[in-house]
């Protein structure tokens, strides 16, 4: 209540043509938010919502040449799409979209759908309750996510639904700034270590080994508060009060464990 209806339009500035209104076949909504374009800029993904929260996900040609396709609608199992950042992710190649939406339970599930709507959305996470934040491999074949079962965990799942989600952590209660390697083989994440401290871990996505701690031992009350990875995934730079509680400094560490952090 009190909001104004927002419609979605497309225009190609170089062509100096009038804009095209999208979603003309849809019921008037309070908001219409463009999420992403396909790599060839032929289609746009957008979410409409009646309120400030959850909504409906559509795909439509940007030139208005075809009707909008409802990607989380029947006959698929997906409910309303979650609000917030990183809930709709166009996978590499631009043919499939991953999104978080309500499933059979009140929890969110991870769904995959073809952008053109050629088949219903596929639920990848069964009865897991997915938390916001996704990452994927360079080819989009694997997706990393945090989800809740009996406790919060970090999972990796094939985007084609060929296998169930595999939990990567061993009870570290991962934070939301995890990263999946380009080839999908490794995950770097912050989680809870000894005495509840937040530390930096590296683990194989196939869980062939337990996650390995990357930072040096921390003093009481200290934490790793953030990290970035080198583009070639040879090292991480992290921020933490590793030397003395409350004195935050930058450290770097090789991911192969061949040398201690400096």
Secondary structure tally, helices: 0
Helix content: under 10%
Q: Strand content of the residues, in percent? A: 35-45%
Question: Which class do the helix and strand fractions yield?
Answer: mainly beta
End-to-end distance, in Å?
A: 55 Å
- Overall mean pLDDT stands at 88
Using only CA atoms, what is the Rg? Answer: 21 Å
Q: Rough shape?
A: elongated
Structure summary, number of beta strands? 21
Largest sheet: 4 strands, antiparallel
Low-confidence runs (pLDDT<50, min 5 residues)? none
Task: Spell out the helices and strands N to C.
Answer: EEEEEEEEEEEEEEEEEEEEE
The order of strands across the largest sheet is 3-4-5-6
General description of the model:
This protein is mainly β and 262 residues long. Helix content is 0%, strand content 43%. It has no helices and 21 strands. It has strands spanning 8-10, 20-22, 31-37, 43-49, 56-61, 69-70, 88-90, 96-102, 108-114, 122-123, 129-136, 142-148, 152-158, 166-167, 179-180, 186-192, 198-204, 212-213, 224-229, 235-244, 247-254. A four-stranded antiparallel beta sheet has the order 3-4-5-6, with no helix packed on it. The mean pLDDT is 88.
Could you give a short description of this structure?
The protein is mostly beta strands. Helix content is about 0%, strand content about 45%. The termini are far apart.
